[in-house]
Amino acid sequence: MRFKAKLLDINCMQQLTRVGASMSRMTKNCVLCLAPKKVVFVSNERISEGGTRIWCEIQQETLFDDYRIEGKDNSNRIFLELITDNFARALKSIQFGVVSVKIRLTKKYTPCLTIEIVTAYGNSNRIITHDVPVVIVPQRDWYEYEEPDMPQFDVSIYMPQMKVLKQVIDRMKNLSEHLVITADQKGNMTLKTQNDIVTVETHFKDLGNPVWANDAANNRKEASTQIGAMEACIYIKKLAQLLQGQQINPSKIICNLLAEKAIHIYLVSEDVILQYYIPAAM
């Protein structure tokens, strides 16, 4: 297996840094899926840990100036398990003045992602090298990290801006461990939490509803419009974890609600798509 990539654009370097920082705040470990056309960070929690699933995808051509990969089979994919904090710390060395960043799969005391950061220093260049240990995921386990199917949602709705949503959830998370999200196909959403003393609700109107190309999704939309609002109860800390970790500045936040089962949050920015799946609280 071989992999090496190079970044020359400071904006692309910063984007990778933001993605790394976001992943480190949402999960301790993840699998980095390297493919010919895209780079994906995947995290699958056990059901006993809340069952959260993260899928963060970047098209490699929007990020890298040079990208070469040689996997074990015809798909030319490589799956690497890593500690997200190690990856994020290595990328923190990327500052203004960086000339280039090279990332290679190497074999040292253990398989590593070697990140080489070249910085202009006076009349010469200074090279900073980080070795991030990784574990090669065997091919028999790749199926666990494939792209998730679009869930069979009952309601799909745009969410408020990240800043507003974060402020609301920050206040609610101290009141209860549960959050009830209610939404309909008329652009209405309610966030509710309660304890023995108080019930707090925040209402949003005219948020809008995405139009999906999938016929089944459109049929569900029509059905849910007739049925009315649908709801799901989740652990509020799971949503707070997503909001606190975000640094990718999404242009759109979509919530696909599976009544009484789960919510599927879809964050879209110019170059990054992040899917976050939160099952209903047990």
UniProtKB/TrEMBL annotation:
<dbReference type="GO" id="GO:0031573">
    <property type="term" value="P:mitotic intra-S DNA damage checkpoint signaling"/>
</dbReference>
<dbReference type="Pfam" id="PF04005">
    <property type="entry name" value="Hus1"/>
</dbReference>
<dbReference type="GO" id="GO:0035861">
    <property type="term" value="C:site of double-strand break"/>
</dbReference>
<dbReference type="GO" id="GO:0044778">
    <property type="term" value="P:meiotic DNA integrity checkpoint signaling"/>
</dbReference>
<dbReference type="GO" id="GO:0000724">
    <property type="term" value="P:double-strand break repair via homologous recombination"/>
</dbReference>
<comment type="similarity">
    <text>Belongs to the HUS1 family.</text>
</comment>
<keyword id="KW-0539">Nucleus</keyword>
<dbReference type="GO" id="GO:0006289">
    <property type="term" value="P:nucleotide-excision repair"/>
</dbReference>
<protein>
    <recommendedName>
        <fullName>Checkpoint protein</fullName>
    </recommendedName>
</protein>
<dbReference type="GO" id="GO:0033314">
    <property type="term" value="P:mitotic DNA replication checkpoint signaling"/>
</dbReference>
<dbReference type="GO" id="GO:0030896">
    <property type="term" value="C:checkpoint clamp complex"/>
</dbReference>
<dbReference type="GO" id="GO:0000723">
    <property type="term" value="P:telomere maintenance"/>
</dbReference>
<dbReference type="InterPro" id="IPR007150">
    <property type="entry name" value="HUS1/Mec3"/>
</dbReference>
<dbReference type="GO" id="GO:0005730">
    <property type="term" value="C:nucleolus"/>
</dbReference>
<dbReference type="InterPro" id="IPR016580">
    <property type="entry name" value="HUS1"/>
</dbReference>
